[in-house]
Design a protein that fits this description.
This is tRNA (N(6)-L-threonylcarbamoyladenosine(37)-C(2))-methylthiotransferase MtaB. This protein is an alpha/beta fold and 404 residues long. The chain has twelve helices and 17 strands. The model has no long low-confidence stretch (mean pLDDT 93).
């Protein structure tokens, strides 16, 4: 049986696609080609691309069995089931269960092999926040935290399989909670219990977990003194205007974010910050957009992930006065251009330095700060190796490097 995974959206979807591929190959699914499409509903464009992919897959291979799952299909299962070639729609809550793929429960106890050098480890699912623009809670349900008793063995297995770096992922990992433990304590526990983990990294986090006065103290401790905890934080920021943040129903304001960035940089000056930002949110006037632009410039966040606002049916934001789509696109382009300027300035500080990096191919990878680099084709390393490199230049948004 041939199994093909087509994945859209977040790191959690990528992690779940690994699990589905593993289970589908183990399961008794008859001798036929199976295409699994793991959808995303964050934007209308993500849904459009998934539908287009399904139609193309059916045209190119009409005999293949197409299975659809993910957040988009969770919200409109009948519509996805009606697409040509789709034989089954699997709910998000069932897609990584062994029984879904005709297997006993024990088949899901061991972590699946990861196709990624930087292994993803899910620690949390769902979201309890009610941001006005977001439909993720409808696709993922309420927040639930995996217990350490499940997380530790999976982390150990990934490390023993040769993964030098593990990335904790989920829908809202900042909400991870078990009894008296928070996310920072989980990270510390992981590093203590699995010393084979060479590097630990977080996926996107809610800024509220790191507000200077009330944030996760254990997480602050890791930032301050744990070399295996990578100096890279990707913030679910969304805007740099307090009024827009309020209308988004976010829990942080710009002062919270500015404070945490300043404190992290005090502890680790070269930390690489990323941020998700929505351009052209409903009611965003020119002046409010400028507040976001100026805030991002002032905070010098080098790795911006910018989305033009996309209406999601049924959300409060979809009922707010909308900005023209051309305006959203233009503002997104301005923010991306700003991000490139900040990124290049950030990258230039590393020229002349040496770094220990994780090789994701023989010639490419990322530094601990998550800056992309490339080696000369004539001087390759090995995929999966921790390599010492020297940064020589910046070119096209990437670090040029060599092995000393």
């Amino acid at each position: 049986m041939s199994v093909t995974l087509l994945t859209f959206g977040c790191r959690l979807n990528a992690h779940e696609s690994d699990a589905m591929e593993h289970l589908a190959r183990l399961g008794q699914m008859r001798d036929e080609e199976t295409i699994i499409v793991n959808t995303c509903t964050v934007t209308a464009e993500a849904e459009r691309q998934a539908r287009q992919t399904i139609r193309r897959a059916h045209r190119e291979n009409p005999a293949a069995r197409i299975i659809v799952t993910g957040c988009a299909s969770e919200r409109a299962a009948d519509a996805w089931a009606a697409l040509p070639g789709v034989s089954r729609v699997i709910p998000n809550t069932e897609k990584t269960l062994p029984a879904t793929w005709g297997l006993p429960d024990e088949a899901g106890q061991a972590p699946p092999p990861s196709r990624y050098i930087r292994a993803l480890l899910q620690v949390q699912q769902g979201c309890d926040n009610d941001c006005t623009f977001c439909v993720i809670p409808a696709g993922r349900g309420q927040s639930t935290s995996m217990p350490p008793g499940e997380i530790i063995p999976k982390a150990r297995a990934l490390a023993e399989a040769g993964h030098c770096e593990i990335v904790l992922t989920g829908v809202d990992i900042a909400s991870w909670q078990q009894k008296d433990m928070g996310l920072g304590q989980l990270c510390r526990h992981l590093l203590d219990e699995v010393p084979e983990i060479a590097r630990l990294r977080l996926s996107s986090i809610d800024p509220m977990i790191l507000t200077p006065d009330t944030g996760d103290k254990a997480l602050w401790g890791l930032i301050a003194d744990e070399p295996r905890f990578m100096p890279h934080l990707h913030l679910s920021l969304q805007a740099g205007s307090d009024l827009i943040l309020k209308r988004m129903k976010r829990r942080h304001n710009t002062a919270d974010v500015a404070g945490l960035i300043a404190q992290v940089r005090h502890l680790r000056p070269d930390t690489g910050f990323g941020a998700d930002v929505i351009a052209g949110f409903p009611t965003e006037t020119d002046a409010l957009f400028q507040e976001t632009y100026d805030f991002l410039a002032e905070q010098a966040i080098p790795f911006l992930h910018v989305f033009p606002y996309s209406e999601r049916p049924g959300t409060p934001a979809a009922r707010m006065p909308a900005m023209p789509k051309a305006t959203r696109q233009e503002r997104a382009a301005r923010l991306r251009a700003l991000g490139q300027t900040i990124r290049d300035r950030f990258l230039n500080r590393f020229v002349g330095q040496e770094k220990t990096v994780l090789m994701e191919s023989p010639t490419t990878g990322h530094t601990p700060e998550f800056a992309a680099f490339t080696l000369p084709q004539a001087q390759p390393s090995h995929r999966g190796r921790l390599e010492r490199i020297r940064i020589t230049a910046v070119q096209d948004g990437m670090l040029m490097a060599e092995i000393p």
